[in-house]
Structure formats: structure tokens, C-alpha cells
Amino acid sequence: MIIAVDGPTASGKGTIAKALAAHFGLPVLDTGLLYRAVGYQTQLDHGDPDNSADALAACDFPDDLLEDPALRYESTGSLASRVSVHPAVRAALLRRQVDFANQPGGAVLDGRDIGTVIAPHADAKLFVTASAEERARRRHAEMVGRGVDISFDAVLADVHARDARDTGRAEAPLMRAPDAKLLDNTDMDRDAALAAAIAFVEERRKGRG
Ligand code: DC
Q1: Which of 58, 78, 126, 174 could form a disulfide with 41 if both were Cys (CB 3.0 to 4.6 A apart)?
Q2: Which atom number of ligand 1 is nearest to the Cα of residue 78?
Q3: Whole-prediction pTM
Q4: Is residue 200 in a domain?
């Protein structure tokens, strides 16, 4: 069974993907991490993330970079969003994601274009979202909890900028696949969102017989 989980930044899609993988006993791939690695490697190489050739060269990042805690930084998320607009970068990362999705037994993948480009044949597709204000509120609380000194308005501005870039790019923009279940968790707590996601996938699985 292939499960596609897409959605904007800070929507909780990663948490939902991990919970689904644990519940259904499937491997999970956070595809955003691949784009984060390319963005970060571009910076390590002193390249320009807005330059397609520089970003493409960084697609050869070493595998152990995926373990680097710096990939989780907010600033790396912005770099990832910038390199992800280049069609050459998306093409370079495509095979790895498609192979992961199509492995025997299935998989869970989360990202922006899983249900539309990477695994349009997925058995269950979820589009996870929440209002920009709520996503910024959660991210701000999480950052302040880590000791980062940043204002709510700065986080909200970043959320808006990421949304605009991820939905506005020409190649594989963030969008809900027509057959994806919309899971807007603005007014839901974590447990309610996880329960709704699991119930939806269970239903899909039964439907497959
Ligand atoms: O999910 P994330 O915040 O780690 O993703 C970082 C950036 O990577 C996101 O802003 C856009 C890009 N991305 C993408 O273009 N396609 C994906 N499947 C996953 C992430």
C-alpha cells in the first residue's frame, strides 16, 4: 500500500506520515529532507540556491548529510524551498523517491508533490493543511521552546513566503490531488488529526479488498 501525504510547511504532515508508517508497518520517506540536503549542500559549496546549475551540482550530496541536524533549521527550509523550484533539481531527486514509493509492500511518503507527481497511483492520498496563522503559531511555539529568539510576525512572514514559492512554482507546485482527502487540522489537536488520518487510510485499505 502506498500512502501519499502532501501539504504546506508546518501543517503537521511529517508527524502524520510517521504515525501512519508506524500504524501500518510501512517505511517512511520525508522527501523535504532531500530538498533540504540539496539546499544545505549548495550553501556549503558557496553556490547560489537560485541558480539552477549550482543547485543541480549539490544534488550529489553525500548520504550522511541526511543525518545532519542543520537540515532541520528554519533557514535550511528556506534554502530547500528555493532550490526546489529548479526543474533539473526535481528531476535529479525523482528516481530516488519513485523507487522508494514503489518498493515491495509499499511505503509512506510526505512532501509537496507525492500524490500528483511521485506516486499518482498511491492507494491513499492525504492533503494536510491548517491556516497560515495556526501553522505559524505552532512553529513559533516550537522555536521559542528550543530557545530561538524570533517574533511571531517573522515566522508568519516566512510561512507566507514558503507557501507562495511552493504553490507558485511552475514545476510540480504544491497542490491537492483531485483524489486526495483534505485534512484541515486548524481546529484539531494532534491526536484528533492522527486518528482522522488513520481512519481514512483504513477505509481506503478495506476498499482495496
Ligand atoms: O517539507 P519541508 O518543509 O521539509 O520541505 C522543504 C522544502 O522542500 C519545501 O518548502 C519545498 C521543497 N519540497 C518540494 O518541493 N517537494 C517535496 N516533495 C518536498 C519538499
Answers
A1: 58
A2: 10
A3: 0.96
A4: no
